[in-house]
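seq/struct pair 1
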Amino acid sequence: AISRELGVPPFKVEKLVSQAGKFSHGELRRVWDYLLETDKSLKSSALQDKLILEGLLFELCLGETLRISEK
C-alpha cells in the first residue's frame, strides 16, 4: 500500500523501513527538522547553496548547528 502511494517498488519501501528502524524517533525527528530548515534556506536565503548544504552536513554529522550569517 505504501509503495503504491509513493509510486516506488515494495523492496525500496522495505529497505527504507528497515534502515529507519535503526534510529530513535527523536533522531529521525531531528534529521527531519534539519532537512526542513535546509529546504527553506535553499529557497529563501541569499547564501550560496553550497554553504547551506555544508551546514546541513555539519548538523547531521556532529549534531550541532552551524550558524552562518548572511552579509
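seq/struct pair 2
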Amino acid sequence: CASVSSVPASTAGVVLRKCAALKVQEWVAHGRNELRNVASGKCLTDPSLTAGTPVSVTACAGAKDQVWWLP
C-alpha cells in the first residue's frame, strides 16, 4: 500500500508498505481528480512529471502535478 512516510513534514514522501488499517495508507478522491491522504490532509504530488521521480504529498492546490487518472 502507498503510505505517507512522515505526516508532520511539510513535504512528506510516499513509500510502499505492507497494507494495514492505518490512516497514513488511506487515500480519498478530492477536488479535480486529486488523491488526498486521510492522515495528513495533503495530496499525492508528482514533483517533476518525469518518469522515475519519487512522489510526495503536498498541500492540495488543484495543480497539474496533483491530477491522477484512475481506471
